[in-house]
Each structure stands twice: as structure tokens, then as C-alpha cells.
Amino acid sequence: MKVSVVMTCYNGEKYIEKQLLSIRDQTYKPDEVIIADDRSNDDTYQIVSAFIENNDLNGWSVYQNTSNLGVIMNFYSAMKKASGDFVFFCDQDDIWELSKIDEMVNIIKDRQEILVLMSKENRIDENDQFIQYTDAESSDVKRIGLSEEVRECLGAGHLLVLRKSFIDQYIDALISAGMTFDVPFCVVAAARSGLYQYDRRLVKRRIHGNNTSGIKQNRFDRIKDYDKYVRGRRMRLGYFEFLCDNWENIADEENKGAYSELNKAIGILQNSVDALKKRKLAPLLKELFSWNKFLNKSISVANILAVLKPASK
């Protein structure tokens, strides 16, 4: 059994060493750590190279792309180089709890039904101080159903470990479709009844002004940047369109019957995205008052608030 960690980085010199330390000091040492630098113009690449050399880290490697690939393709490119049976995704600016790999590998290794396993997180600021913290956790492992994953999009990359065989099965299709690398894998896993969540907070997720994900404290903050908000809604819709377009090759017997309702939800969401682009309220109200297990009502409310918010001049 072999474990890989895949990290991508770009201009991450400020925080990356703390993340590297948290991987180095894991109670379960990864067999392979692949770090892909996307042509940083700060000292990120040099910091990582020196860290590997100074700590004599066998199985660790860092390379720099010949050209800037962007966040999504950099991750996919690095992912393809992983040779482990289980692959962890890693951001450049978080801090892992030292038992993260150990705990998650010991769950997934003997449970073939788990294709993707996610943990939970606490959040820290630029100075490592908690801005969102809870010690309410357990050792429970629960399956995330398809409707819950479509509504909530729970699968952020830094929380995940995936079976490499599962990655290999779908990675080329996701690349061809222009999908991001984390939530789509989770949506596909859920459609195959293989997405599970471990109720332990094993990542200190750093929130700062330069996060590539643009993560906010809650979704209502996101409407402050209207154009970015609309792009996010369109990207989210793309995940589900991909799922429906490839339904016969993805959904297991348990989920096959959900196609009709999911397809209806996609139609409603397509109308909502068009309405957001045109700042039209009526289709958004229709989404809010439509009953469909795949629709997220808090997003429906956020859409309405976004349209009602005065346009920036």
C-alpha cells in the first residue's frame, strides 16, 4: 500500500513552510510527496527545494512548470504523476493535524466502498489564530448521499483522500470538460455511493486575502462581487451538467432513478444562472419556491439578494 500527497503552489512563500512541516511530521509518513510549482515569481520554489534537501526527504519531489498552467491544470498535471494507491490533495497555506494521514488511511484502506473520504476543518487566520473552531467531533464515518453533495458541494480538495484507481477512471473526462479537481470527483463518487465524511477536523484551513479559492465565511458574503458570484454559480452548474451528460457511465443502481429529478434541477439552475446574468428576479423566485431535493435553498436566497443588491457603478 502506497500513499501520495499532491501539493500545488504559486507565490506561496509566506505560509508554505508551515504546511511542509505538518506533512513531514505526520505520524504516518507518506511514501510520495509531489509538489508542483506553477512558475512562482517569489521564492516558493527555492523554499520547497531547500526544505526537501535540508530534511533529506526521500520520496519528496518538487518541479516547476515550463509555463503557468493555472490552478486547475496544475493540480491535474501533478495528480497524474501520483503513483500511490491513495492520494491526498494539499494546499500550500494550510496546516495539517499530525494524525491526518494515519487516521484517514486507516479508514479507507479496508473499506472498498469508499472512493473518496473527506475530513472536516477548523479555520485560522494569517497569524495561525483560530477564526472558526469547534472541538465537537467524533470518530463517525458517514456516507454522503448524492442529493446532499449536489446541494452542499462539500468536497473541498484540502479535506480529501481518493483512491488512485478512482482518479484514473475519471480524470481525463473531467479535464476534457474543463472541471475543477475537487467537487466534481466528490459528485461522481456520491453518484456511485462512494463519498464518505469522517467527523474529525484534521485541517487548519488558512483564510487570507490571497486564497485561490476565494473562500469566505459564508455564501452571503460572496454576493459582494457580483460578477465573480455569477461565475461561481455557473461553475457549480457545470458539475451537475457533467454528471447528467455522463450518467450512464457513472451512476450506480441505487442512484439511477434520480436522473429525472436531477435533470429538472439542472433546468431550474440553468434558468437561474441566465437570470443572474440579466439581473432578472422572476426565475430566481421560481427556484426558491420549487421543491426539488437537489436544490439548495440558501443559495436560492443568496441569488435573490444578489440581484436586489444595487449594481456597482
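The above is record 1. Record 2 follows with the same two-line structure.
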Amino acid sequence: MKRQIKVGLLVMMIAVCLAGCGSTAGNTKEAMDSELFGTWSWKIDSPNGVTYYYEFKEDGTGCLGQMEDQSVKIPFTYEVKDKEILITKEASSGDGETTNSVGYEVDGDTLVLTAESGKVTTLQKQ
């Protein structure tokens, strides 16, 4: 069961991190980061109803985790460029790091992430 949760978490991380490239001109890093600070969650439609979250800290670090099992966490660093979040984490192979990007938009307590594939994930601020 725990292995299934970790695999599900990894699949969601990959899906969310795969995104299209966008312009890096425009808003400053400071202005864009402040919108992201905090914890954002979304629930997976499944029999288990698992809820995942992203935590973005002011120091440019964060983690992807599962609300129901706080031991399941993937640490990352992030950078914001225009309307894109660049997330760097340890490669799943354990050999180096990978950086992926995802488009985003914040509207109050809602964060919308858009992958290059067009997959949209809507998160709520906690």
C-alpha cells in the first residue's frame, strides 16, 4: 500500500512538472514568489481519495507530499520566471538532479498548474 502511494506521488510529480516553456520576461521574482508562498493541496479522484500538496517556502525550497502520510515527501528547490515555476529535484535514479517547469496562475486561494500536455491541476491554499 505504501509503495502504491509513493508510486502515485511520483507519477503526479512527473505529470505536474512536465510543462511548456514560456517567456521569462515580465514580473519580478520577488513579486511572483510571494503569490506562491505556503501550502497548496489537491485531491486525486480515486477510491482512496489521496490528497497531495506542494509547499513553497520563501527561501526557494519546498516539498511535494501527501497529506495522509507525512512521511511521503519529495524535497525540491524552485525558481519563478514570469508565469513559470522551475522545479529542481533529485533524479528518481538518484543520479544528479532534474529541472522541470510548469505554467501557473494564482487567483486568490486557487493555484492552477498547466503542463505542456495541457493537463490542468487546480490546487487550494491551506
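Residues 33 and 80 are 6 Å apart (CA to CA).
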